[in-house]
Amino acid sequence: MKPLIASALALALLTGSAVAQAPETTLIHAGRLLADPATGKVETRRTLIIQGGRIVGVEDGFVQRPGAKVIDLSGQFVLPGLIDSHVHLLHENGPGDKMDRVTRTTADWAIMGVPFAKKTLEAGFTTVANLGDENDSILALRDGIARGDVEGPRVVAAGSVISPHGGEGDVYGYRWDVIRAVQRPTLCSGPDECRKVVRQQVQKGADIIKIVATGAVLSDAAQGVDQQFDDDELQAIVHTAHALGRKVAAHAHGTVGVNAALRAGVDSIEHGTFIDADSMKLFKARGSYLVPTLMAGDTVTGWANDPNSFLSPQAREKALLVGPRMIDATRRAHEAGVKIAFGTDSSVSKHGDNAREFELLVRAGLTPLEAIQTATVNGAAHLGLSARVGSLAPGKAADVVAVNGDPLADVSVLRHVNFVMKAGVVAKP
Ligand SMILES: [Zn+2]
């Protein structure tokens, strides 16, 4: 090695930066920009400056920089990547559900989730909470997406749902020995057992804890839709999860079950069909979120009214009890000032159709801006991700979507997202 080259190399090693390249810069020219849905302020002709997957600046006009890649969205409405706080990425419900459960392996489930994750991302949803799927399958999909091996949204995963024995998260409709073979490991009875399954879920890698606090629609259990976990079990679950830094999302329809879960301190009520005046007070006192999942209500009502429905008689009865009431519950919660986070329960409805929930939220009385807030700033706060996602500002992830038209005038334009970037990587087109 010649002395000159050797000394240059030594210098580079010493400084660590002598031969480093400037980070790659991407510039997005946004015709109209809703950078922070909390303010509702729409700016025109702005440039988002992106480096290393993050926003590093937002400037006036259409800025150019030498060597930077420019993405021209000058004719588009640009907003932060959307957040769906309730999905199940590994399947879509249908007549095959019962057989799938006893024929598919955990590897099958994970692979089934790959196209659904891609569809969700391409629909503009850059972050989702997956509230209940087999541990190994969903955690593998979450981690594969995070590594960049698989295309999909950032996943906050609950893993398997925690349910009482014989409750809605248990298994119905098979021979007893078959039930025992396919039961989840996350069933519990009594506060001690419930503490234990929460700790085990965290150990296995759950980001959030999902519990089934009341009966549910899509099971073959004839148990109604009210409280199933006892108060002491709910308290043990919430206390343990919070001690381990995890939030608790509670599936709950019936009034008594909703209020018991809120009293125990859950961070969100999923569905919340029969919320009453006491629920509203509890929501506000605890700062808990309602995740309405209006698309699920709409979808199961359609199935129940179909004379050739694949639903069991038990599920059909519950669907007709719950489905048509969900919009009204959301309207009452919104009027009472309860915080709402966007969630679809996709798997009931089709993956990729998530944005139809915006129209149902508007039908429940939210303004288009309020509906967009549920899927951006509110979703981020609900999931504890406000420092990273939910708005477009320096330091935040470069999660960006764009649409033609003005979603603040007509929220249905969000069904046709034509540009998606997640953490600086273009996912669509
Ligand atoms: Zn669900």
Care to give the gist of this entry?
The protein is of the alpha/beta class.
Could you describe the 3D structure shown?
With 429 residues, this protein is an alpha/beta fold. It folds into two domains: 20-80 and 392-428, Urease, subunit C, domain 1; 82-382, Alpha-Beta Barrel (TIM Barrel), CATH 3.20.20.140. The chain is built from 15 helices and 17 strands. The strands form four sheets. Strands 3-2-1-4-15-16-17 form a seven-stranded mixed beta sheet, with no helix packed on it. Strands 10-11-12-13-14 form a five-stranded parallel beta sheet. It has a three-stranded parallel beta sheet with strand order 5-6-7. The longest helix is centred in the first third of the chain and has 17 residues, at 106-122. Mean pLDDT is 91; it is low at 1-19. The structure holds zinc ion. Residues 86, 88, 131-132, 345 line the site of zinc ion.
Structural class: alpha/beta
CATH fold-level label of the largest domain: TIM Barrel
Overall tally of domains: 2
How are the strands ordered across the major sheet? 3-2-1-4-15-16-17
Indicate the mean pLDDT: 91
Q: Could you say which overall geometry the principal axes of the C-alpha atoms support?
A: globular
Give the low-pLDDT segments: 1-19
How many DSSP E strands?
A: 17
CATH superfamily of the largest domain, by name, is: Metal-dependent hydrolases
Rg from Cα: 23 Å
Distance between the termini: 48 Å
Using brief descriptors, characterize the structure shown.
single chain; 2 domains; TIM Barrel; Urease, subunit C, domain 1; five-stranded parallel β-sheet; 17 strands; seven-stranded mixed β-sheet; binds zinc ion; 429 residues; alpha/beta
